[in-house]
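Run folding on both entries below.
>entry_1
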Amino acid sequence: MLNGRIVYVGKTGDLRRRFENYRRGDKNRYRVKQLIQAALADGMTASVLLATPGASEWNGLPVDLVDGLEAGLIRAVRPEWNRVGLA
């Protein structure tokens, strides 16, 4: 979030590694790293919201709540930094 506005929705199995990838700016995270740096340079306040839904199943089948939550949030919020949200 930037100044209380959701700008990016993502998922990770390892939050520390995800932030390290942004810090280093690896090829898959470089675009978002630049966006974060520009926002902070402009004096914006960044916040991270974390959801950790547990395992679930439906009729004995595993249900991935993380994938469903991420997709639903992107569809509902259409965060400007998500390329999917731009479509």
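>entry_2
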Amino acid sequence: MKTIKSIKIVFVFAILLLSSCKERTQEKESIISADITEEEHNDKNKNQNNTKMIQVIGQFEAKPEYREEVKNALMKVVKGSLNEPGCIGNRLFEDKHNPNMFFGYEQFSDEEAVAFHRNQSYELDLIKIAEYALVTPPKAYVKEKSINGLVYRESKSEANSKELIVIGLFEMEQEQRDKVVAQYEKQVPNVRKELGCISFNAYTVLGQPTQFAVVEEWKTEEIARKFSTIDKLSIETGKVLAESLSLPIPDYLHELKEVFISKKMAPAG
């Protein structure tokens, strides 16, 4: 057990109160991270060694009749944050198989940067829209830190259409999650060696002992599929994950299309 100072973290797309303003005791979160290649990772790790950085993945499901309104509001937030000094960058995605589902990934330099963002007009406008336009309240998956750091990628308006980006948001018993984390401690460096992998990250979620997230980016879908079917450790990892979940693995996965990326930005994990 580890005592950590709770903070109010507001996701760039919606204010989500994730903890109280007093100190509390909670289990230390573990995060496993891997990037383009081990050599490139070691060279660029210095770019993202800020222990105060707040990194969040957010999930938003719009009601069908409000899809465009939600998307436009999210775009305004992403573009507006370009001028925020403490916003390192953020990315906006659509689920390829559910056009009403959006995911965002953001990085803030510290709590002060989050507080500044929270008071911007485009953020306040989105909060109002979210009250009536979403199927359920937005969800936030907060990372404590990245053990191996993350690699920045250059700014661009859209991702390469051939890239495969997948987010897995898993729910399982804590005992099973611990077993999965142990397996991914072997799997992460294994995937890192594959040159076709842009980014591969796995982490537990702050304050949620039953959740586990995996985010991966590949140069092409073909490379990813081939690796997952012939690599022995990947096959073993798939079996461990399947045994730990109550639903089939595909039910937890979201294949994404990138809508926008602002500033220099680390991979989506």
